[in-house]
């Protein structure tokens, strides 16, 4: 978790990064916190772990570029929370998503913050109450993931989407993502005010002027 | 856009209007703003265009009667925003929904306000980040549209629903729609307070007294 | 309604209750308020009925243990509101869900509070405007119910889920449910603060210590 956070903070200072893919190096995307760690530490340590995880989710959600998550196998507990917190999610047909803390007597309350805001309330509650996983197909049905593909095609699909995003105007993408996050926190009327102003600002971008010119001239734009 | 707004404001003063269908006269529902217009105008003009569009969406959302949108072909950018802002949407199997501004370097920030409040967050973000359309089936899966029918049956289906709505008590419909919009902005407890009071008010309507009587007498009601 | 409320309040004082199933004794889950009652009473009586129903929904939503609803046949009006207000819902293939008040000139404004917060906006509005039911499959698609099973298997399925929940740590379940409800009312950052604190508290529970120990020792936990 510390490593992921450090990487994220480091990338944020690099101007030429256009899109991020988070994936695991193993066959299981993430099984969440290590319970052994909880068993051996005290309340003050516990607090630090949960605050660190919440902070990581906040960094990911507000990240300056689009964040794609590529899910091999199971995403459980904080792993499921991470999936819920990313912008776009691709998983394999065998992927499972769960918040199984209750099975060990530790209700997945922090994962519930993210999962409860992405899935319909009843689907989230059944996961939290029973600890049982939902399938990739169910995750797709309710928008926890964007695409379910053959397990062998996960990386290929994520990279295809990442390449598409990276091929577009980076300055526009950053402005647009920031605006989307900000406006979603506002009531609709204020949201429109903010978004209208951002569009006016966007129209002044060199990339936007080039993009519109290219569209009218029916040619490919050359981004800055 | 000005024409649609003027029509809407005119209809609002006509008492005998019971339901509205918005549809296009061409094979494409709407491809959004004209980029040529942006290319030739300045920031102050741009601001007016976006404020006008936001105002139009506000008028539609708060309209005094139900608003059905009937979608032939593609609904892109502000066209997709319009679909998201109506009450009920019917489209054809070949319909596509997109927020493609990013392809021209102009992120669809204002459409994102409406689309981000109707679709699951990840589905909305993929549309906004890649500019790629979702299909009619995907729009149905996530509730952006109510029904997908054969392209040749769009008008027929929209009119069937419109006729059903028009056959019911107009005074009750207006009261009910207004209450739904208002209560959805409130936290749940306040929402129930408001809605309870509206139901008590509704029970005093001549149409409601007739409707309940007709139900108990197992006959068709005669609306005012 | 009074009977259900009294039962709920009575159970709340019993410490050994772990999960609740609400079901009907007939083939129709609930057709809502009795219109004859409205016809024969005055505004002050009406107000009492709607306030009582809203209060019942509030009790169910904030109930101290998980609430499963088992739906035989149709759930209409306040019955549909009840389904929307429970934690987990199981229905049969022939089940229908509707808010048909408009057909009798009485818009389902209070059911709209619950239904509008569970279903996508357009799906809720079509139900409210036309009075027409949605099928079990549509309810499942949009998360109004968790599972659709053969009509003869409804009780069996509900009990299976109830047994699973009852087999887990009761103290953890109550803490977790309470936290989920509370945090969902907060903005995300505050929600994480609350949930982090609850997880730290949860780790001090005897059941949680036993649960983690059992997990690490690869044996079944023995709950308090």
Write a concise keyword list for the protein shown above.
homotrimer, 224 residues, alpha/beta, 2-enoyl-CoA Hydratase, Chain A, domain 1, Lyase 2-enoyl-coa Hydratase, Chain  A, domain 2, 4-stranded parallel β-sheet, 55% helix
Structure write-up:
3 copies of one chain form a homotrimer. Chain A is of the alpha/beta class. Chain A has helices at residues 2-11, 35-39, 43-61, 78-85, 109-118, 121-130, 136-141, 154-166, 170-184, 188-203, 206-216, and strands at residues 20-23, 67-71, 74-76, 88-92, 96-98, 134-135, 147-149. Chain A contains 11 helices and 7 strands. Chain A has a 4-stranded parallel β-sheet with strand order 1-2-4-7. Chain A folds into 2 domains: 2-166, 2-enoyl-CoA Hydratase, Chain A, domain 1 (Alpha-Beta Complex), CATH 3.90.226; 170-216, Lyase 2-enoyl-coa Hydratase, Chain  A, domain 2. In chain A, helix 4 runs parallel beside helix 5 (109-118), helix 5 (109-118) runs antiparallel to helix 6 and helix 9 packs antiparallel against helix 10 (188-203). The longest helix of chain A has 19 residues, at 43-61. Chains in contact: A-B, A-C, B-C. At the A-C interface, helix 2, helix 3, helix 5 and helix 6 of A face helix 8, helix 9, helix 10 and helix 11 of C. Chains A, B, C: This is Enoyl-CoA hydratase domain-containing protein 3, mitochondrial.
Layout of helices and strands:
Three copies of one chain form a homotrimer.
Chain A: H1 2-11, E1 20-23, H2 35-39, H3 43-61, E2 67-71, E3 74-76, H4 78-85, E4 88-92, E5 96-98, H5 109-118, H6 121-130, E6 134-135, H7 136-141, E7 147-149, H8 154-166, H9 170-184, H10 188-203, H11 206-216
Parallel strand pairs in A: 1-2, 2-4, 3-5, 4-7
Antiparallel strand pairs in A: 5-6
Helix pairs in contact in A: 1-3, 3-4, 4-5, 5-6, 9-10
């Amino acid at each position: 978790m510390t490593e992921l956070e450090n990487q994220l903070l480091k990338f944020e200072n690099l101007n030429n990064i256009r899109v991020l893919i988070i994936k695991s190096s193993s066959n299981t995307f993430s099984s969440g916190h290590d319970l052994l760690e909880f068993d051996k530490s005290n309340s003050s340590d516990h607090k630090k772990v949960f605050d660190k995880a919440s902070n990581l989710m906040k960094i990911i959600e507000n990240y300056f570029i689009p964040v794609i998550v590529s899910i091999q196998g199971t995403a459980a507990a904080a792993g499921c929370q991470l999936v819920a917190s990313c912008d776009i999610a691709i998983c394999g047909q065998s992927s499972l998503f769960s918040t199984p803390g209750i099975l060990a007597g530790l209700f997945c309350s922090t994962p519930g913050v993210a999962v409860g805001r992405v899935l319909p309330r009843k689907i989230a509650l059944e996961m939290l109450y029973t600890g049982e996983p939902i399938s990739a197909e169910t995750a797709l049905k309710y928008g926890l993931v964007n695409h379910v593909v053959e397990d062998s095609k996960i990386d290929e699909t994520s990279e295809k989407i990442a390449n598409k995003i990276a091929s577009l105007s980076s300055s526009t993408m950053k402005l647009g993502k920031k605006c989307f996050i900000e406006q979603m926190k506002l009531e609709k009327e204020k949201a429109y005010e903010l978004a209208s102003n951002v569009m006016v600002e966007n129209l002044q971008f060199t990339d936007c002027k080039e993009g519109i010119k290219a569209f009218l001239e029916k040619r490919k734009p050359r981004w800055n």
